[in-house]
């Protein structure tokens, strides 16, 4: 198997899991798609054992769904999934923000300030903004220093990336998100734990609302594209003539 050099010193199944994870999060293996194990075994030059171990790892992260007698599929994120993931992220990350407000050192606060400055500078580059937004959130969690919370949030954020209705795609959401980050950072500077918690929770509530709006718009577009052509030609007036 031709794995990147950075993966070479890891167990084979972890190398396979990382390569598949990258493809899933990049949507080259889109949500709902069947994972062709035979093709992967052939392409990667490996046996079924490390591949199946890799799929178990991805299933534990929520990225893959294994169906008995049917195989493995990339997980599809439902509206309920989105709502539940946002709820958990809201609770876990707001708790972390409150802790950081109280115990972060000046040097650690400076790290968050620097990350936020980079986020501000990336406001016109959506992909860079996505990456820096996640980096800010994850660094905040790391500073709160609870490795279990970091692990849980990291897995939940992977599931979020499966959602094709990213909240930041909603019109005006990127600027709104940036303003919410400013407010959270201001609360952290003031060492106001209650405000940091409340503002972080509001940030996730707004994110969920934006994700729903994107999903609703996408569903409407898909419905319009798949509507039978006969609907406007079978004896009913066309839009142009109405």
From TrEMBL:
Protein name: GntR family transcriptional regulator
CDD domains (alphabetical): WHTH_GntR
Keywords, sorted A to Z: DNA-binding, Transcription, Transcription regulation
PROSITE patterns the UniProt entry points to: HTH_GNTR (PS50949)
Example GO molecular function: DNA binding
Any single Pfam family the record assigns to this protein: GntR
Region (Disordered): 219-242
Domain of life: Bacteria
All copies of domain HTH gntR-type, residue ranges: 10-77
């Amino acid at each position: 198997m031709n794995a990147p050099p950075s993966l070479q010193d890891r167990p084979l199944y972890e190398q396979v899991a990382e390569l598949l994870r990258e493809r899933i999060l990049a949507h080259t293996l889109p949500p709902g798609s069947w994972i062709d194990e035979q093709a992967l075994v052939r392409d990667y030059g490996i046996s079924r054992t490390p591949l199946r171990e890799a799929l178990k790892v991805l299933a534990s992260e929520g990225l893959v769904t294994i169906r008995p007698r049917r195989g493995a599929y990339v997980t599809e994120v439902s509206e309920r999934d989105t709502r539940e993931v946002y709820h958990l992220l809201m609770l876990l990350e707001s708790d972390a923000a409150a802790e950081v407000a109280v115990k972060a050192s000046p040097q650690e606060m400076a790290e968050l300030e620097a990350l936020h400055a980079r986020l501000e500078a990336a406001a016109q580059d959506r992909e860079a903004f996505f990456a820096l937004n996640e980096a800010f959130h994850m660094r905040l969690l790391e500073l709160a220093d609870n490795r279990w919370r970091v692990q849980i949030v990291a897995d939940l954020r992977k599931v979020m990336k499966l959602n094709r209705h990213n909240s930041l795609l909603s019109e005006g959401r990127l600027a709104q998100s940036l303003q919410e980050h400013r407010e959270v950072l201001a609360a952290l500077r003031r060492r106001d734990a209650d405000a940091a918690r409340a503002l972080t929770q509001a940030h996730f509530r707004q994110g969920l609302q934006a994700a729903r709006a994107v999903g609703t718009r996408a569903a409407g577009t898909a419905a319009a594209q798949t509507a039978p052509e006969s609907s406007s030609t079978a004896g009913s007036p066309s839009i142009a003539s109405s």
